[in-house]
C-alpha cells in the first residue's frame, strides 16, 4: 500500500511538473510575441536618418571606382595629404551606369582620411540640380552595406545553429536592443530628455526583455532582473558623483562637442557621459545576475528543503567566483578604447602624474572603475534578491 502511495505521489508530482512547464512555455511564448510586436512598433518610429538625402538635396548610391589619379597627393611619412581625382561609375539607383568625376580630399589625419584604389566600391552622394540632373558626385567612404548585412546574417545563422531555440531568443534580444537605442533612446535625448533619466528607463526596458526572454517569466528571471537593476541604479549614482567630483565636463567622447554645434546646445554632455557609463556596463550586469540567479535556482531545485540562509550562503560562494572574473572582463573590454592613447603618452615620455590628471585619462578611469564597481555590487544584490524570491517554499510542481 505504501508502495502504491509513493508511486501515486511521484506520478502526481510528474503531472504537476509537466503542467507547470506547459504554463511556463505558454507565458514565454506570449512574452516573445509581445517583444517582437513592440520591436516592430519601435522600428516604425522616426530616428532622424530618414529624409537626410532630401534635406541635403542629394541621392545616395553605390559606385565603383573606375579611374584614380594620385598626382596631387603628397606623402608625409605614414600619412598623405592632397587630393585624389576619381572617376566613379554608379551601380545603383536611377543613375545606374553613368560615370561621374569626383575628388577625395585628404587632411593628413589617418582616422578621418580614406584612400581609394581602382575597383573599390564606394558610397556616393549625388548632389542634384533643380532640373533633376547630377551637379556633383561626392565619394563618402568605402561601401560596406553589403558586407555588414552578410556579417549579420552569418552571426544570426551561427547563433541559431549552436543555440537552437535559445539562439532565436538571443537574436530577438540583440535586434530589440539595437532598435530601442536607435529609434527611442537617442532621438529622445536629442528632443530634450535628460540623458540619465532616458537611459535608466531604456535600460530597465531592455533588461526586462533580455532577462525574461532568456531566463523565462520565472522566479529565476525575476531574481536576475532585480539584481541587475539594483546594480544599474547604484552605478548611475556612483557615476554621477564621481563625474562631478573629478570635474569631467563630458566633452571627452568623439563627436560630443559636435552635437552642441549641430543645433543641440541644450544637451548636457556631463549627463550624456554619465549615462554612457551604466549603459555600457548594463550588459555585463545582466550576464552576472543571470549566472548567479540560475545557480541559486538550480541549487533550490536540487535541494528543495534548503533554508533561505543556506541558499544565500551558496549564492555568495557562486557570486565570488563569477564576479572575480567579470570585473577583469569589463576592464579588458574597455581597454581597447584607450590603448593607443596610453601608448602615445608612453612613447612621448609624459610623466605618469601628468597622465593621471589629464581629463581624457580621468574620464576613462571613471568609466572603467565605476563600471567594475557597479558590476561587483550586482553580486550581493542578486544573492539577496535570490534569497527572498527563491528561498521561499515552492509548490510541488516547481520543485
Structural class: alpha+beta
Rounded radius of gyration (Å): 27 Å
**Mean pLDDT figure:** 82
Distance between the termini: 25 Å
How many separate structural domains?
2
Helical percent range?
55-70%
SSE arrangement, N to C: HHEEEEEHHHHHHHHHH
Counting DSSP H or I runs of 4 or more residues, the number of helices is 12
Shape: globular
Number of strands: 5
| Strand order in space, largest sheet | 3-2-1-4-5
Q: Could you describe the 3D structure shown?
A:
The structure is a single chain. The protein has helices spanning 2-43, 52-56, 145-163, 165-190, 195-215, 219-245, 256-260, 269-302, 308-335, 339-347, 352-356, 359-389, and strands spanning 58-76, 79-90, 99-107, 121-128, 134-142. With 399 residues, the chain is of the alpha+beta class. The protein folds into two domains: 52-143, Beta Barrel (OB fold (Dihydrolipoamide Acetyltransferase, E2P)), CATH 2.40.50; 151-398, no CATH class. The two termini are 25 Å apart. Residues 395-399 have low confidence and may be disordered.
How are the SSEs ordered, and which strands pair?
Layout: H1 2-43, H2 52-56, E1 58-76, E2 79-90, E3 99-107, E4 121-128, E5 134-142, H3 145-163, H4 165-190, H5 195-215, H6 219-245, H7 256-260, H8 269-302, H9 308-335, H10 339-347, H11 352-356, H12 359-389
Antiparallel strand pairs: 1-2, 1-4, 2-3, 4-5
Based on the model shown, name its key terms.
alpha+beta, disordered C terminus, OB fold (Dihydrolipoamide Acetyltransferase, E2P)
